[in-house]
Amino acid sequence: MTSLHDHCTSQARRQRVLALTPRETLETHWAALGIRAPHRCVRGPETGMAMLRGRMGGTGSAFHLGEMTLTRASVALDDGTPGGGALGHGWVRGRDRRHAELIALVDACARHAAWARRIDLDLIAPLQKALEARHAEASHEAAATRVDFFTLVRGE
């Protein structure tokens, strides 16, 4: 039995991976999974702005950094259950309406016990590995351009 904390952690991880994965890659992997889930949009997809906050030095006083375009969507699965089935939500930076809707669909399907494990193992895990590999490559490229500065103390 999973706790509420474990569920929230896995849902947050899933949302992060789906939002950071390019839409074309996500569509390819989702199609390969073969889950066919009729659904309807409950809200959106709609595009708006979100205020970004920062902190001085990462821990200091908060300040408004700026705004970011954000697209969100909510879908309900048409699985015949009373109330319209599982509800899923998706958010993505930018204006990609299809990406937000696809994230919401995956989220809704992941709320079904029959599909949750398969989605986490066969969809999210490979996408997360690909994201980690891209991050490691970008870190490696950045490290190659790193310059170490040091101070010379001259004697009088």
From TrEMBL:
The gene is phnG. InterPro entries: Phosphonate_metab_PhnG (IPR009609). This is Phosphonate C-P lyase system protein PhnG. Keywords: Lyase. GO terms for biological process: organic phosphonate metabolic process; organic phosphonate transport. It comes from the Bacteria. GO terms for molecular function: lyase activity.
